[in-house]
Automatic annotation (TrEMBL):
Boundaries of every O-antigen ligase-related domain copy: 205-361
Molecular function per GO: ligase activity
GO cellular component annotations of the record: membrane
Alphabetical keyword list: Ligase, Membrane, Transmembrane, Transmembrane helix
Name by which UniProt lists this protein: O-antigen ligase
Positions in coiled-coil regions: none
């Protein structure tokens, strides 16, 4: 007669892999909810993921696959570059903090490479939570805009943006809205998408796109339309579906024009952006213009990179190096208005030199060498959207951007590579 005591249930859940799988699911849910609203959950999520890995009853058999995983090693090499910078850093306190802050580069891939993998239905559920959750946060934020549209337009006039109602920084929020749009469309075609779920996902995708345009987030709109262009090219050259490609190109041409004519926020954003660029080009006062200050930061970063080409100044010393260079050429920007680089590629160039940029490009482009990654549309959309966004912002330098990238890299890329490797089946995996 089988015992139903908590201890026996726990042992059975461990033995058949359900404990590991459910812990990984809990880590994913915590990660998504943390990104949307509860920041503390983001810090807990990697710890739960590591616990899921340790709870795998076939952990020993999974370790060789983890050690062979190129996506795991790519993120580990980024962490290794940070360790290497300890030999020449001068900002020891910052360096020690970065060692702790960037530990998810090791922990998150470990979780997705060693824990019992999520089932297809569970992965679908995590995706739905991300898409629908973002649509709800976006709709609530749009509601705040509708309460005072004139006040929001005045924010745009001074280069400001409306953060999400859950206080997500506007750049990361806009990127997440773009991801929600494309992921929502992809998930609606999943085998797990019943008519109700399909309708909810399509409605959520539409909501994300509407919020992105009405609130006129520059970075989000940039990646939205770059991805649309890439999809049009893909359907034309790879899928040979001319009508779909033409429809996407029509949307690419007509969407921005329609938004410009119909939405005052978009018109103000375009005018504000062009004026910012003009301020920089003509050498005027840049203090109150965000785009102009970013252009000045790029010029400052270029000078630093020229003087430290191979290993850079070190991740912990990047801020100090920027501020010192501003002392030589300040572009008329007061100290309180001097900004960091706002370009992830340039950030790796000054912090890690040519070595850092090379490793970073490997992280972004290396997975595409694998056929299984190229066939996964979620991977392609994730890499292109984040890769484009990082041309205009240093996403990894704020914790929410770092967590977003590392979580999706593990959930999509590490998990996809693992699924393409032969592994011993477990009852939980087969469920």
């Amino acid at each position: 007669m089988m015992s139903n005591s908590p201890a026996s249930v726990f042992r059975q859940a461990y033995a058949d892999g359900r404990l590991s799988q459910y812990l990984l699911l809990l880590a994913c849910v915590a990660g998504v909810v943390g990104l949307l609203a509860a920041r503390a959950l983001v810090a807990i999520s990697p710890l739960v993921g590591v616990a899921a890995a340790l709870a795998n009853p076939q952990l020993r058999q999974a370790v060789p696959g983890w050690l062979r995983s190129s996506s795991v090693w790519l993120l580990a090499l980024l962490y290794g570059l940070l360790l290497l910078s300890g030999f020449y850093t001068t900002a020891w306190d910052v360096w020690r903090h970065e060692l702790y802050r960037q530990l998810p580069l090791i922990g998150v891939p470990l979780a997705f490479a060693l824990a019992v993998p999520l089932s297809g239905r569970q992965r679908f559920g995590v995706g739905v939570l991300f898409v629908v959750g973002l649509a709800l946060v976006g709709a609530a934020t749009l509601g705040r805009y509708l309460l005072d549209p004139a006040g929001f337009i005045s924010l745009i006039n001074v280069g400001q943006n409306l953060p999400s109602i859950t206080r997500i920084f506007h750049i990361h929020f806009s990127i997440m809205l773009a991801l929600a749009f494309y992921f929502g469309l992809l998930l609606s075609r999943s085998q797990w998408a019943t008519p109700i779920w399909r309708g909810l996902l399509l409605a959520s995708a539409a909501t994300a796109a509407i919020v992105l345009h009405v609130l006129a987030y520059r970075t989000g709109l940039l990646v939205f339309y770059v991805m649309l262009l890439a999809d049009a090219v893909y359907f034309l050259l790879v899928r040979r579906q001319l009508l779909i490609s033409l429809a996407l190109l029509l949307l690419l041409a007509g969407g921005p024009l329609l938004a410009y004519r119909a939405l005052p926020s978009v018109r103000e954003r375009v005018t504000n952006t062009l004026y910012d660029i003009e301020q920089f080009q003509q050498g005027r006062d840049l203090n109150n213009y965000s785009v102009a200050r970013r252009l000045a930061a790029w010029e400052t970063a270029r000078t630093i990179a020229t003087n430290n080409p191979w290993l850079g100044v070190g991740a912990a010393d990047a801020y100090d190096a920027m501020m010192r260079q501003y002392e030589y050429q300040d572009f008329g920007i007061r100290p309180e208005n001097r900004v960091m680089i706002h370009n992830q590629y340039l950030h790796y160039l000054i912090s890690g030199g040519i070595t850092g940029v090379f490793l970073w490009l490997l992280v972004l482009l290396g997975p595409l060498a694998q056929p299984s990654q190229r066939r996964n549309p979620y991977v392609g959309h994730f890499l292109l959207i984040l890769g484009t966004a990082m041309l205009v912002d240093s996403l990894l330098e704020l914790q929410i951007g770092f967590n977003l990238f590392v979580f999706l890299y593990g959930f999509l890329i590490v998990a996809t590579e693992r699924s393409s490797q032969p592994t011993p089946p477990t009852p939980a995996r087969a469920a």
